[in-house]
Amino acid sequence: MKVDSGTNLAMSWKDKLLMGSDVQKANTQKEDDFKLLEGDAKKEIVDGIPAITFSKRVHQFIAKRMDRTVIVKLLGRRISYFTMTNKLQAIWGTKQALQVIDLDNDYFSDKFQNDEDYVEALSGGSWTIFGHYLIVRPWTLAFTTTQDHPNNLMVWIRLPNLPEARSCPIASLSPANKEDRSKDNKK
């Protein structure tokens, strides 16, 4: 039996999808280069429940992979994955497709392919879907889906008699800021 070691090797589905994009191939190669080393994952039992703790190096790798990712939540209304994906693509008008993941507690994770679209989504204005405000915030390591609402968020304030194009984020509200403001009002 003769085996041909020529160029007619079968391509993987991933290679076919990424074909023609040197940037995509370079990024994929970098991602594939990550290997768990001895000590990167610590297995233990806490109160009878198995737990895995990852090293700082693994957390840094995850944070790097989550670059250009925002967390969104529609206030006051539940929405399906497909509807959210279609609406976000329409209102943001991204140049490249979004990678949307449906998370617990009506949160969605949206990863952008370029910085322009990412910055526009974060700072382009107050976004609404079906008349409900959309919370848009950058992903952080501290993000958790266990909270019904974020503990701080950027607000957009429109002052009367100013054109809408002049709206801009002027404050970040958090429970601490609310308490400080209420104390000042009581004086």
Automatic annotation (TrEMBL):
Signal peptide annotation: none
Protein name: DUF4283 domain-containing protein
InterPro entries: At4g02000-like, DUF4283
Coiled-coil stretches: none
Regions crossing the membrane: none
PANTHER family: DUF4283 DOMAIN-CONTAINING PROTEIN, GLYCINE-RICH CELL WALL STRUCTURAL PROTEIN 1.8-LIKE
Sequence ranges assigned to domain DUF4283 in this UniProt record: 64-146
